[in-house]
Structure formats: C-alpha cells, structure tokens
Amino acid sequence: MNKTALGVVFGGKSSEYAVSLHSAASLLRQIRTERYAITMIAISKEGEWFLYEGSIDALEHDRWQQEKCTPCALTHDGLLILHEGSYEIRHLDCIFPVLHGKNGEDGTIQGLFELSDIPYVGCDHMSSAICMDKEMTHIIVEHAGIPCAPYMSVYAWEHRDPAEVFAAARDQLGLPFFIKPCNAGSSYGIHCIEGEEGFAQALADAFYHDGKGKVILEKAIEGFEIGCAVMGNAELITGRADEIEIQGELFDYVEKYNLITSKIHMPARVDAETERRIQETAKRIYRALGCRCFARVDMFLEPVGRL
Length: 307
Fold this sequence. Notes:
- The structure is a single chain.
- By secondary structure, the chain is of the alpha+beta class.
- Helix content is about 30%, strand content about 30%.
- The protein is built from nine helices and 16 strands.
- The protein has helices at about 15-30, 55-60, 110-115, 125-130, 135-145, 160-175, 200-210, 255-260, 270-290; strands at about 5-10, 35-45, 50, 70-75, 80-85, 85-90, 95, 150-155, 175-180, 190-195, 215-220, 225-230, 235-240, 240-245, 265, 295-300.
- The strands form three sheets. A seven-stranded mixed sheet has the order 6-5-4-3-2-1-7.
- Strand 4 and strand 5 form a beta hairpin.
- The longest helix is centred in the C-terminal third of the chain and has 17 residues, at about 270-290.
- The model has no long low-confidence stretch (mean pLDDT about 95).
C-alpha cells in the first residue's frame, strides 16, 4: 500500500507556540506510520520554516532547533528543501497544521496552503478567520438564532477612556464580566472584572494579546463549560459532550494545560436529552461558521438548562 505523504506543521509565530509543540508531539506519537509517510515541518517563533528530522522528545521540549533542521518553504504541490548549493522538492499529498493561535488558526496559513494547491486538514481560510475572531463568531452565531453571552466590542482606534468603557460595560453587561482579546486563544489576556480597580490594566493586556486592536467584553454566564467535537463535511457526527469543572472564576492557561485544580468529565454529567441538545447545537454552530473536517464547539450550560 502506498503511504500518504503527510506534512505535519508545528511551532509558529504565535504566543501559543509552546502549546503547538505539545499538540504536535501527541499527534506524532499516535499517528499510524504504516499508512503515512511523515514530513515534519517546523516554524520558528520568528516565522522561519525548516524541515525537521529530529526526535519527537526534542520537538516537544522545544529543543528541535538543536537537531537536524534544513531551511524550507512551501511551493506548488509540496515542500522546497534548501540544501547548501542545491535544492529538492518533496511532494506532499496533504498537510496537517498542528498550530495554535495567530498565524495558525486564523486563516493565514490556510490561505497559504490553498495558494500552494496542497490539501490540508481542518477548516478553510474563511471559517478559520471567523472562528478566531470572537466578535465575528458572535455576529454569525447570533444571526443563526443561537443564544450567546451578551457582549460589547472595544476598538483601539476609538481611543476611549478606560473609565468610560468600564461604565458602559457595567451598565450594559452587569458585573462581573470578562475582557478577552478578540484574536487570541489559550486564555491569554483574559480577565474577570468585578469592579473598576485594575480594569484599565486588564483592558491594555487584552489589547496587547489581540494584536489587531480589538477586544470583546462579555457578560459572565452562570453555569459550567461544555465542549463537543464535530467531524465531517456533508455528513456530520459528534463526539460525547465533555464538562469542565473549575475551582476558580476562569479556566486559565495554567489550568487548561495542567489541570491542577480543574477536572474534565468525559462524558459530561448531564442527562441524555441535554447531551442530545448539546450535540445538535454544536452541529448548528459548525454549519453556521462554515467549518469543515472537524472542530470543537464550546458552550455554557446554565442552571436552568439553557445553552
């Protein structure tokens, strides 16, 4: 059987670079090498591309640049590998981007794959961009008739006084509310706001992590977080719903990747009818956002049972 030539891309010019390394290592340890011929493609924090031929352990612990790396670039239908004084082109049947955050999940690299005419795993450039931008996600999902947390957006070009923004959010959303960068993941730059003290600093931090001059403020939702995986294109299937149990006010970066005080219950501790509603809502959101291949949809389940 001919193996599929699969390029696995990791790293990236993103604040979530380290998360990508762990995700890529997990994939590479599980993938069926009898079916796939793997080409590992590393992107440094500075945005340089390399063919990586070292160990998975070195990759995971950010020592990959100390092992065999050869400069490379995408070209039509494959990878251009740049040796000293010569080059080679390695055909790729498909690329699996295991990237997190900006320049990885936001449609940027997906557009590059499309220009290179190389099939890739995951959502296309448009849905990736929409899903990365929390304001755009709100607009589209609400238009599809699905309840979302009340929110307001703040733009850097407005040059608004933080005290004015706080007052507007307090009146519109109530307390507490959350500040989030519109274009970042892994809980970077997210703050729970219970009063005006520290608000200006939290707002500045969210703008810093967003990098595109847009921040979203959301009403705190009473309840707990539910996740549901969706896979497919024309036909969709869902996984079981999972439940995140946290001790504090926020499932932050440390808790997401270490689970010190938090727990993930799989399946979620809900009845069969509630899980069915979670799965159906996840599919509606997946369709509304134009997703393909697979995605994880996160929701909150309120005490009254509303998603």
